[in-house]
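User: Can you recover a sequence for this backbone? Please restate the input before giving your answer.

Assistant: Of course. Working from this structure:
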């Protein structure tokens, strides 16, 4: 007979100005909660994008990814489905389904909610730098190292499909 064990987690609060702030490509990523902090249940990252930013086509193999638009707008391609999303809208991107998005003309602030947690925040950290301010980063001096980005993605169960 198999006996399941359950670990009780401590309640937690992350204030609006808290979380690990990272400059991830052209966006501000604030890791609000990690897989370690939720017993592996989820990762939540608050993203702030400038207007017209784009995420490349990619796929997650280890987690599902949900998007909750807080401000602004974005156009998502999830599998074959195109979805226009604005404030208050929620989208679900199941694992193994390629997806990408383009930010609207007013920019966008949204939550990435990944289940289970643990891999996604490691991918963010591996592809980003600590933010020097809680703002959208300045334009980069050099183009991104696509080989490094692809390797970090692979190590965390994702694949870039560019």
């Amino acid at each position: 007979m198999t006996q399941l064990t359950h670990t009780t987690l401590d309640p937690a609060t992350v204030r609006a100005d808290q979380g690990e702030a990272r400059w991830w490509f052209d966006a501000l990523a604030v890791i609000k909660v990690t897989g370690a902090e939720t017993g592996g249940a989820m990762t939540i990252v608050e993203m702030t994008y400038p207007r017209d930013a784009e995420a490349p086509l990619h796929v997650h193999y280890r987690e599902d990814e949900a998007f909750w638009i807080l401000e602004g707008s974005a156009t998502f391609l999830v599998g074959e489905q195109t979805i226009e999303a604005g404030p208050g809208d929620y989208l679900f991107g199941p694992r193994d389904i390629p997806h990408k998005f383009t930010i609207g003309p007013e920019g966008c602030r949204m939550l990435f909610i990944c289940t289970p947690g643990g891999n996604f925040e490691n991918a963010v950290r591996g592809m980003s730098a600590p933010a020097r301010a809680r703002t959208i980063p300045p334009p980069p001096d050099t183009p991104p190292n696509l080989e490094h980005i692809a390797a970090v993605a692979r190590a965390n169960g994702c694949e870039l499909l560019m």
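That completes the design. The chain has one domain: 24-136+146-160.
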